[in-house]
Amino acid sequence: MTSIGKIIKEIIIPHRKGNIRLNPEFFVLEDAHIQGFFLGTDYQRMYGIEIYNELLNEFGEGQFSTTLTSKQKISLLKILRKDRPAFSIVEEPLGKIRGHDIKLYLDVERPSPPMLRRPPYPASLKTRKEIEKHINELLEMDFIRKIGKNEILEITTPVIITWNDGKSRLCGDFRALNNYTKADRYPIPRIPHALDKVAKAKYITKMDCMRGFEKNGLKPDSMKILRIICHMGIYEYTRMPLGMDMHQPTSKG
């Protein structure tokens, strides 16, 4: 971007302590696609000014209802910024429930039966590309780790790719493992009882948790049970994966 000149222009910013009058220098840039203007951070700190564009950039990947007014949207953005640690994106570490690492119990003696020692499923070129994408994402999020060549292998579960609305999802085919895993019979709360608790509420908020099931950690011995296999090799889950029968009771209990 090249500066082609500057102008000095008085601006007035409404503020609860009185209007703020500034005489900043505006630099005109050639071929610059900028919405709004930059204001020095010293002024922002001094007067507690929050720039709307800055809020939008911080939560640029979010989608907001078109029914919100500009004032409502700004209020929502401020709440999101205030409680920023509660929200996660792919580039940031996903939260983990503390003190709730899950232990799996098998209903079978060693050595594990052949049904639990499976080779990878055949996969098309398209499926292999999707598997690679998801495996790399899980590695980046520290949800799985690569198994070394000298580690003892007793259980390997092949992975599959499922599709929904044009989006792919990687899942271990844990049907055989579920048959040999002791079930947790923790009762799931009844939906009518939950609805009764919010019957008099004025506002009801629904939030979609990013990888909600995978916020549960695993005991070290249970990680060895949850090993998946594909054309890229063998990997071990460090979080409770999608597809296990233990998901529902451990998440809702």
TrEMBL record:
Stated name of the protein: Reverse transcriptase domain-containing protein
Species of the source: Austropuccinia psidii MF-1
UniProt-listed SUPFAM superfamilies: DNA/RNA polymerases
PANTHER family assigned to the protein according to its UniProt record, in alphabetical order: REVERSE TRANSCRIPTASE DOMAIN-CONTAINING PROTEIN, TRANSPOSON TY3-I GAG-POL POLYPROTEIN
InterPro entries hit by this protein: DNA/RNA_pol_sf (IPR043502), Rev_trsase/Diguanyl_cyclase (IPR043128), RNA-dir_DNA_polymerase (IPR053134)
